[in-house]
Amino acid sequence: MSRKLNLSTTHYLQFSRQQWATLRNSVPMTLKEQEINSLRGINEDLSLTEVAEIYLPLSRLLNFYISFNLRRQVVLDQFLGTIKQKIPYIISIAGSVAVGKSTTARVLKALLSRWPKYRSVELMTTDGFLHPNNILKKRGLMKKKGFPQSYDMHSLVNFIADLKSGVDQVSAPIYSHLMYDIIPGSVKIIKKPDILILEGLNVLQSGMDYPHDPHHVFVSDFVDFSIYVDASETLLEHWYVNRFLKFRKGAFNNPDSYFHNYAHLSKKKTIKIARSLWKEINWLNLKKNILPTRERAHLIMSKSVNHAVKRLYLRK
After folding, report:
1. Which residues 6+ apart lie within 8 Å of 165 measured at CB?
2. Average pLDDT of 124-130?
């Protein structure tokens, strides 16, 4: 099981699912069932109820924070006598592999971009800042992909710093999960969004997580609101194995897939490999590098079976 929060001394407000759902207030549902189906991850049950009870209250809270942040920027501009700059509000989403970070990010993007007052929302993952496979192989890090040392943290931090400095446009490398590698020569261009949602394993990590690569600022220094998506280790392994089995029937059948050789294995053999990959790579990364960052988040979303959020912890 995941290390439990020390609730006796915690600096978080705790909410049951029912308590959190009441905080939706009168925020309207702007997504239809068909749209929610398109946002769902390959291994998740995302329902209209989940969006209404969990994500609508969260979008309401985030819009309060964003509005306050905009007012604060206006005050600073008035004080300095400067022209108002468009500085993105950055929301980070962390958590284990297979916990459903990507689905959380997609749902929030859909909801925040449809708020009555229009705001442009961009979504990206930190995967694009992984070192290419040829570098990882050279450094003996292919089995450490997703660990702190597998990222080009200087480039990632510079990317976020440029965004927060009001640079007109920034670019990020693109990662292909099919190729399991960076796509050479391909970049994603981001032009001054109102909101950037940044999803990744490493978005809550700081200096103590990078002793091999010392530098003075980190992604977490530029984030305005951080979310950690949590679940027990038992559930995470179960979701990881199930997702691997679904990939075996789907993406792995593509000849261009890095994992194409797994497509024709028996179900029993596939499960054995998936459990081995979980234990040797993803579980180890979770215990050493991801889970220790959980209590740095502004909001912790704790999931139960079927990826349903059962409890939330909001920093006071």
Report:
1. none
2. 97
Distances in Å between the Cα of 133 and the Cα atoms of 53, 130, 187, 286 are 41, 9, 17, 21
- Mapped onto helix, strand or coil, the DSSP state of residue 284 is helix
For 97, the token pair is 């592999």
DSSP state of 273: H
Q: What is the pairing mode between strands 170-176 and 225-230?
A: unpaired
- Residues 90 and 224 sit within 8 Å (Cβ to Cβ): yes
The 10 Å Cβ neighbour count of residue 305 is: 12
Euclidean distance between CA atoms 24 and 33, whole angstroms: 19
Tell me 17's DSSP state: H
Q: Coil, strand, or helix at residue 42? A: coil
Question: Considering the entire predicted model, what is its pTM?
Answer: 0.93
Distance CA 145, CA 131 (A): 9
Cα 211 to Cα 148, 207, 208, 247: the distances in Å are: 10, 7, 6, 35
Q: What is the CA radius of gyration of the chain?
A: 20
The position carrying tokens 């501009």 is: 77
- Region of 195 please: left (phi>0), alpha (psi -120 to 50) or beta: beta
Do the Cβ atoms of 184 and 111 come closer than 8 Å? no
Please list, in sequence order, all residues whose beta carbon lies within 8 angstroms of the beta carbon of residue 303, skipping any fewer than 6 positions away.
99, 100, 229, 230, 231, 235, 309, 310
pLDDT-based confidence at residue 310 (cuts at 50, 70, 90)? very high
Nearest to 197 by CA among 129, 105, 119, 117: 105
The angle at the Cα of 198, spanning 239 to 145, to the nearest 5 degrees, equals 55
Q: What is the pLDDT of residues 165-192, one digit of tens each?
A: 989 999 999 999 999 999 999 999 999 9
If phi over 0 gives left and psi between -120 and 50 gives alpha, with beta otherwise, what is residue 140?
A: left
What single-letter DSSP state applies at residue 190? E
Residues in the chain: 316
| Residues near 250 by beta carbon (within 8 Å), at least 6 away in sequence | 42
